[in-house]
Amino acid sequence: MTKDCYHCGDPVPQGCQHHVEILGKIRDMCCPGCEAVAETIVESGLTSYYEYRTAPAEKAELVPQQLQSLLLYDHEEIQQEFVRETENSKEASLSLDGVSCAACAWLIEKQLLREDGVISIRVNTTTHRALLSWDPEKAKLSHLLGIIHKLGYKAAPFEADAQEQQYHRTMKNYLYRLGIAGIATMQVMMLAVALYFEIFGDLDAEFKNYLRWVSLIFATPVLLYSALPFYLNAWRNLRARTLGMDVPVSIALLFAYVASLYATVMEKGEVFFESISMFTFFLLLGRFLEMRARRHAAAASANLLKLVPTMATLEDGSQVAAKTLKVGDIVTVLPGESLPADGTILQGQTAIDESMLTGEPMPVARLVGDDVFAGTINGDGNITLQVTKDRQNSLISNIVRLQDEAQVSKPKVAEVADIVARYFVAAILVISACTWFYWYQHRPEDALWITLAVLVATCPCALSLATPTALTCSTSSLGRLGILLRRGHVLETLCNVNQLVIDKTGTLTEGNVRLVDTKVYGDINELNALHYAAELERFANHPIARAFSSYRCDDRLFDDVENVIGSGLIGTLGNNEWRIGKASFVLEASSDATSIIANCDPQYQVWLSCNGELVASFKLDDPIREDSKELIQQFQTAGIKVTMLTGDNSVSAKLVADKLGIDSLKAGVSPEGKLDYLRSLDKSRVALMIGDGVNDAPVLAGAHLSVAMGSGTDIAKSSADMVLLSDQLSRILRARKLALKTRKIIRENLAWSLGYNLIILPLAVAGLVAPYIAVVGMSGSSIIVVSNSLRLLKENG
User: What pLDDT, on a 0 to 100 scale, did the predictor assign at position 59?
Assistant: First the structure.
């Protein structure tokens, strides 16, 4: 019986011995090409391609394996795991290998933005990740990844585990290089002591030259192996006609080696083998410590994805990979297990630990019908849930994606620092050339080592690290506070806020609106009035609507209901038009609406009418949040004016404003009116808007800076710059404190890096800085900047 190739479906020739283990079984392949592609798919962790595919793949040709691995990423089945689709584009988070400084990021962004179909590419040098958005009709992902590979960097879809493995491989290579450089440095330094200080003063010239040859033997592996990362980075930069941090370092090492090799062979002049070994050792040590620190800063958001379990248990008891779950699947979760996907509870009740999302340490009770999220931990109950979102669109994936977007969105100070760093490298090269020329005229024997000191000591690594490391650390800290950043300018703008504009219902108040009293007019009884009100409010997504939910009928009364945002709802039942909402809206068809409203108790905020005739009015109560008063007082203490902007025109709005001591109240304002109010503010006012409802969406989108409550509507959260997942207003105060500290640390980093370079440059040019002091200073400067930024990770607000 003829076997078919598991990859392409073609018949397997008689005697063909090509096999690959896929999904736990040995699969037959028809040729080396299919075998190579299948092995690449398995090794890349993309075996789910074979589960999802609807037809065999095209027959593979014998092309380079690296190219084949990139072509795999064009398959729709594989892209399901890591690509997020929008209306006209696709978006993917990529892991990058080989990125060492801002010049690397600039180079990748510059080259890809030239390609037709690329909408945006933003690289984060701290997390070694990039956000790529492209038009699939104009460009293939494999082509874009290939461009990055041609530049000398490696790019692949971001996976937390894969990136961690890559990090450990990189660190292991650095340790090997560091070990060789360290051993060679010790040996060469012992020989250098004998040569330079002439401890053995009676050594003849031949023996001294012998010591130089031994030093050359020890220094050569350091130059060719240990220092290789610096040359590769420098070559990438030069090939792309840009200047990175490793260009002056590479020039210094190569010039010193060539000059020392010449002096050794010709038996005249000075050698710098100890400087080469020491340069490389300290540079690698600094880079190693810097990478560890940056990894610590970047780990917080990536670690969120590790909270999602790898396996999920279906309703029938079978286990599948969690990443393969689709919308509609039914899964069971036992006590103590992490939830594998976002979903809705169908059976059971439990308490769920959501601290990784909201920062709240106490478990939250969840019942049938409640939404739950991937990565959270089930407490003490067995639950069955229906998957409502696939992995790419889960809350935890969106949090990581939005954090990445916030981190790669550079503030102006970061963009300026990157530009200054690139021009600074060019200036260093010019100054170094002038330094060598001057000293060669006056003290030729010292010209080389002084030039080397200038090249190394003034490398602006710290300048490029000053801002991105601080932003990454502060974004991670905000995530632990339960604050999700959706825009990159948040930290910068939060420091400049001088006016707080805040909604009432669901923001200053709990949003847990309760029906306190009902007053009926005419022949209708109270229960029927509540039924009509509840059926109209069924079509609204507002805290007030939930107050009527217990009075809903089993079958819907109204089929055609119009939601007039900011006013109320209109429903038709037979020939009758029912309205619920504000008094002016409900009674606008009534001839004596003004007198009716004037004679009614102002504490009744919601009104119900039929054909313009008043049917009932409802008195509601919404408790003020415990931390609302603290929020208002803290902002006022900081000199920030507070305005309550609400659509509620009842007496309760004024009561809340008075109780909290709010500076000004704007009540009964429509969504358009809220936006008009913001636009009417003086240009010197930088407004922070906090809201939660559909009617807040326009003003949230139009404010300088906006915060949506986590319990608010989806449209409010999609319009805001920040989302407060825990609904604790005190977290906003802590976020502002963190933003101010971040600005302070960025300024400290920039002051240190610029100040160090301005001080060390004239000293190095004057020949007052030894080469080994130069390399220690440069490495130490970078480590100080990164360590200073890491203080933000310990900030608890």
Answer: 57
